[in-house]
Amino acid sequence: MKTHELRQLSVKELSEKAASLEEEIFNLRFQAKLGQLSNPLRLRIVRKDIARAQTVLTEKKRSEKTAAPKEPAK
Predict the structure, then answer these.
(1) 14 Cβ neighbours under 8 A, 6+ residues apart
(2) Which residues have CB under 8 Å from 22's CB, separation 6+?
(3) Domain locations in the chain as residue ranges
(4) What is the Cα–Cα distance from 42 to 29, expressed in whole angstroms?
(5) What is the three-class DSSP state of 29?
(6) Are the C-beta atoms of residues 29 and 43 closer than 8 Å to each other?
(7) What is the pLDDT of residues 2-55, one digit of tens each?
(8) What's the whole-model pTM score?
(9) Distance of alpha carbon 54 from its chain centroid, rounded?
């Protein structure tokens, strides 16, 4: 998945996407250990997609914190 596609998702959708990718990589690793993995390159692709999703999720969370209005000091 491309980064610009991930940036269009909400924080909740990004969390769900990252969770589904984690589940997919678990299944791919399991298949690899059993010798049933048809496309070994898929492991690398999914790992990078997880990193992209987590990076965009972190960026969005940080931007929400800085965009929150602050109370004036008394």
Answers:
(1) 6, 53, 56, 57, 60
(2) 50
(3) 3-65
(4) 10
(5) helix
(6) yes
(7) 889 999 999 999 999 999 999 999 999 999 999 999 999 999 999 999 999 999
(8) 0.82
(9) 4
Which of 2, 10, 3, 17 is CA-nearest to residue 63?
10
User: What are the contacts of 44-48 at 24+ separation with CB within 8 A?
Assistant: 46/21
Say which residue the tokens 């990004």 belong to: 14
- Whose structure tokens read 């929150």? 68
**In CATH, what number does 3-65 get?**
1.10.287.310
**Short-list 58, 52, 56, 46, CA closest to 22:** 46
- Name the amino acid, one letter, at 58: T
